[in-house]
Amino acid sequence: MSIAQKIDAYISQSSWIRKMFEAGTELKKQYGEDNVFDFSIGNPNLEPPEALGKAIIAIATSELPNKHGYMPNAGYLETRTVLAEQLSSLYKTAIEARHIIMTCGAGGALNVIFKTLLDPGDEVIIITPFFVEYKFYIDNFGGTVRIAKSNEDFSLSIPNIAAAINDKTKALLINSPNNPSGRVYDGQALAGLAALLKEQSALRKKPIYLISDEPYREIVYEGMVLPSVLWAYPHSIIAYSYSKSISVPGERIGYILVSPAVAEAEKLIDGLILSNRILGFVNAPALMQRVIAMIGEARVDVHRYEHKRDLLCALLAESGYEFIKPEGAFYLFPKSPLADDVAFVRILQSKRVLGVPGSGFGAPGYFRLAYCVTDATIINSAASFAEAIAECRSSF
Q: SS3 for 331?
């Protein structure tokens, strides 16, 4: 065989998101862009804030010395200093530049974190439903995934997490707002989680790390305040990306934030910086590091995503779909009208609607719709969604 057996096996398990995205490309060739309703991939459709373009032009045309050159492995000190000031204000916690490592998005950040933390056989707990690539990231470094089911409303189940913890547990990975459910874990849930992790860390005489994947941190609705893991638990590490908050997923810019209270913080930070280099990511792009330091708190208009959420929820409710209204991110995760969610997604595809089966997120019986699309895409998909559920009902 020309490739590794593990990768060959992974090909058959590869992301449903990409599969549906590629299927959509073919459908669009056949029927035209406006006649295919693509909810498959979380590719932000809002334009970046105006400040971003101005900052890119200013930096690109400046006479900064060595502006495209190598930098410290943790990233530019001036960028990390700006971020430390912003994050100290956000979290009401004294964060310094040394607590921040610039990364190639949240995906890069998570791989750097797992490279630094995991020995072969260490376990990482993930919560259903989960982002499809978490299992691959953990396996990259010899880790083992242990899955804890969420409650029926996708909130954290502390008993299920407790049952998943054992002597091999190295970390728990959470994602709030959640992809794919849109669930936000509230302060009470984080307090319960923190109490459990403190108890289990003391019992096992080692810290169990809480890793929080936060690419949707700013995308929350109805005035909700997103509680922080930094407030709840000392052994916390945050992976952040600007992909969604300023609509630049292709620029691969993010960071790792290590809680100042984490155990052996300096050793952990040194390990993260080394891993950032030896994994080959080396640094987040120089231009984008300088850009984010210039744009301050500029972000996309979250109210526009909230409007899209409400449009899609109203449309699906009218056709009889069951779902929990998302509190954040830009995904809806309805129940499949068929027990076989893959079969239902195929029916949607036959109606020129592209979604993703919940099975890919560890939650069979559901399907995901990414509503970071035009309002017209949502509105014009109404008949197709109605036809799909009607076809399911007629088969009963």
A: strand
